């Protein structure tokens, strides 16, 4: 109907604010196993509906069902559970260390552990992730030493980055983990460039780009999709939709497009949505996308539907902008509980063994923490030298930095 | 020795580099099949194939962002931004990413890229095809910033930039592409084929980054110039009869302070000239360095001759451009001070 009255300005709002009752009734959750699994060389035009659905493997009874199930063995699933429990335990200890003043800043993964832990297992050695600040599971699941992560978090004398970077902005080429910038979205197009370079070099390695729901609004996201589409770059384009960009609900970045996966459709990029709290689903979809990339079929966009249970960072208090009980109402549950229940259902795990494993893992984390703290914490003990501050700006120190270092007397 | 225009010299630098090292790749807007709007990459796609020289979407942040990823992989991208005026969408990638990658990862990842772009005015390009944004890059730790003034240097500096292990911003004064230009826009252009610095050796050679060169020996006053202003300075010295020592900085970051200090300590006077706007321009840095390092030798205040603090105008191009008359007046005033 025609409406030629005064123009009205539209600002989207989340369903509920603090004080309200959490409501996710608008989030449509398809039954586990109900979304088909296309061949990797499918014509992208025929699977556009996958950008609006949610691929799920684990059902409410803890069973793995449907065409995306059956890829992982008991051992692999038990290992995945261990990685997620380790990440959660690591986060809890480091969050506490931040509160104790041992470092300046921390970012945890609470509720999102499955995304990075499961994705890592879909990659091959030599592949490269271009992560954001909430994918430390990529390192944990690849066996990167926790002590080294903690040394970085503490900016101590053993910090591989010499105290130059904010806590959790890790870098490990050896473990396929590109240096985290701290700026948002810049890494997305870099991942595409890395993948283009691999193709230019007739290599077999692929790249994985990571971004959050909020940062998809950055122009780097758009240019990454253009380049990935144009050059059919061997890259998996990951969007972790954890519903919240600090205090801003995902609707502000998403606008009217329905889903973030749908962003890929205009570029002709196969775009899938997956239950980000379902370890098996994340792994299966990641594997599908990685195989496409490795077989010269080009990029795939994957939206992981999850929920940021914790605060954005140690500097954030979510009670100011969302209901406290919202995370309990999140319909996709907890990734660790769901995998644990599945393993129990498979007959290879139990509540007792889980409790025991949690305790053992906590011990491992605590002993790693003790070892890291022997090298110092941000304000106590060993730390990188002031001289280190001047190193590494360039391959070779230019005269003006030499003069400044002398001036600083270090 | 063969004579080449600056365009041909720049193309030759990429050609030589691509032939020597298969990790060197070239891309940008209109750069592939067509060979670039200034023709700097003409023939490279035909010679090296589409994997090593190709057209990019109109997305400067995409071009530089992709180049950073390629460098992290192990390639050595030399990308073109069509005009320096178009580089701002890529500024975040250059400043926050390329410049800091080595530092923030403690050398785990590095970023050996070259970002080439035509700079400066004098072609009636208006405010979007005339800017000189060098100071926006010299302010960034981790970058190198190069401005050649002739075909010989352009080739040697570009090869050095491509071989450099760190990101280099390579600003090509577009008014010099086809011949030296001293600001006398009313006179016919001298082509590089008639200029000794148009002599460009075949094959591989480098001009080291971070080394200035004295273009004119003199005793009365030091002129610090780069790019097009080198020729403006030469014209101003000739026209005023002032025995100026003209230094062509060639690399702004890292800067050859030694050559500057030696010259100003000898002459006792210094005029800084650039086409970019005055306020917070690179001339401010040069002026500060000269007074910090040569204070006891100075017999006059350090003068700056620059573009005005306005956007680069179209019809008023020659009122804006710091030509030999304006520089000449500054030289006279500095001598009289």
Order of strands across the main sheet of chain A: 1-2-3-7-6
Structural class of chain A: alpha/beta
- What count of domains describes the coordinates of chain B? 2
**The CATH topology of the largest domain in chain A:** Rossmann fold
Which stretches of chain B are poorly predicted, pLDDT < 50 over at least 5 residues?
A: none
Q: How many strand elements of chain A?
A: 7
Number of domains of chain A: 2
Major sheet characteristics of chain B:
7 strands, mixed
* SSE sequence of chain A, one letter per element: HHEHHHEHEEEHEHEHHHH
Question: What is the helix content of chain B?
Answer: 25-40%
CATH architecture of the largest domain in chain A: 3-Layer(aba) Sandwich
Largest contact between protein chains? A-B, 44 and 45 residues
Mass-distribution shape of chain B? globular
CATH homologous superfamily heading of the largest domain in chain A = Thiamin diphosphate (ThDP)-binding fold, Pyr/PP domains
N-to-C order of helices and strands of chain B? HEHEHEHHEHEHEEEHEEHEHEHH
CATH class of the largest domain in chain B: Alpha Beta
CATH topology of the largest domain in chain B: Rossmann fold
Low-confidence stretches of chain A: none
Shape verdict of chain A: globular
CATH-defined architecture of the largest domain in chain B: 3-Layer(aba) Sandwich
Give the termini separation of chain A: 73 Å
Report on this model:
The complex is a heterodimer of chains A (410) and B (337). Chain A is 35% helix and 8% strand. With 410 residues, chain A is of the alpha/beta class. Chain A folds into 2 domains: 44-379, Rossmann fold (3-Layer(aba) Sandwich), CATH 3.40.50.970; 386-410, no CATH class. The longest helix of chain A is centred in the first third of the chain and has 26 residues, at 74-99. Chain A starts with 73 loop residues before the first helix and ends with a helix. Chain B has 2 domains: 6-198, 3-Layer(aba) Sandwich (Rossmann fold); 213-336, Rossmann fold (3-Layer(aba) Sandwich). Chain B contains 12 helices and 12 strands. The model of chain B has no long low-confidence stretch (mean pLDDT 98). The A-B interface holds A 128, 130, 160-162, 164-165, 169, 171-173, 178-179, 181, 183, 186, 188-198, 200-201, 207, 219-220, 223-224, 226-227, 230, 392-395, 398-400 and B 25, 51-52, 56-57, 59, 61-62, 65-70, 72-75, 89, 92-93, 96-97, 100-110, 141-142, 144, 165-166, 210, 253-255, 257-258.
